[in-house]
Write a structure and sequence with these properties.
By secondary structure, the protein is α/β, with parallel strands linked by helices. It has one domain: SGNH hydrolase (Rossmann fold), CATH 3.40.50.1110. Helix content is about 45%, strand content about 10%. It has a five-stranded parallel beta sheet, sandwiched between helices. Helix 9 links the parallel strand 4 and strand 5. Helix 5 packs across helix 10, helix 6 runs parallel beside helix 8 and helix 8 packs parallel to helix 9.
Length: about 250
């Protein structure tokens, strides 16, 4: 078991447990109405449906980076998620490096991989990504959902992105399952992320909560949601992998 696996159990209570309110995605359009969501559910798996998505053209010469995740990405519990959540910090880091980046935080508290598969068409209808960062799975692990189903859902999300924005670069962010789920489950869960990344030739961040999971000083009073300082650590973890991707994407 990796060193961080034993620390991740309390943190996996975080990513929007059942009673946690949903957080709107910063920079993304308002959430769809229930009727719209039902319509999405009906056609989410339709062959070729994502290829027909029409998203607005990017403004200016900036790279649009969509972070598609759960409460970790949304910045649940922070005083100002728009500036303190790790996607915003990555954007600031990119600009400091002279990279023309515009980040869209499409994180929603409570999201599972299945929920993400239903939601992705709506997000892509509002923005066309140059880089798509997939950071889902924490809630699947928390709820003991099947790794095979999670792999299918994550693959479905990236397949939709690939159809709607063929030139977008893809990044898969890894997560760990609670160790009390048993070694067999945690191993199968962990293996999903490199498998999905390999299938779509995506760049991979091994573990979003590296150095943050189980560290009291980096988590809020509930012991499970990262503080602003914890989010800064997450931003560094993501930047180490995403930075080279953005530099490559910014080349003429």
């Amino acid at each position: 078991m990796p060193r961080h696996a034993a620390l991740v159990l309390p943190l996996l209570l975080l990513a929007a447990c059942n009673g946690e309110p949903a957080s709107p995605a910063a920079g993304a359009p308002p959430a769809p109405a229930a009727a719209d969501t039902a319509a999405q559910d009906a056609d989410a798996g339709a062959a070729g449906s994502c290829a027909s998505i029409t998203s607005p053209p990017a403004s200016g010469d900036s790279l649009t980076v969509v972070f598609f995740g759960d409460s970790l990405t949304a910045g649940y519990g922070l005083a100002d998620a728009d500036t303190q959540a790790y996607p915003a910090l990555v954007e600031a880091r990119a600009r400091e490096a002279g990279l023309p980046v515009r980040v869209v935080n499409a994180g929603v508290s409570g999201e599972t991989s299945a929920g993400g598969l239903r939601r992705v068409r709506w997000v892509l209808g509002g923005v066309r990504p140059d880089v798509f960062v997939l950071a889902l799975g924490a809630n699947d692990g928390l709820r003991g959902l099947g790794p095979i189903d999670m792999e299918e859902n994550l693959s479905g999300i990236l397949a939709c992105v690939r159809e709607a924005a063929p030139e977008a670069r893809l990044v898969v962010v890894g997560m760990e399952a609670p160790p009390n789920m048993g070694g067999g489950y945690t191993d199968r869960f962990r293996a999903v992320f490199p498998a999905v990344a390999a299938r779509f030739e995506a760049t991979r961040v091994p573990f979003l909560l590296e150095g943050v999971g189980g560290v009291p000083a980096l988590n809020q009073s509930d012991g499970v949601h990262p503080t602003a300082e914890g989010q800064r650590a997450m931003a560094e973890t993501v930047w180490a992998v995403l930075g080279p991707v953005l530099r490559e994407a910014a080349r003429p």
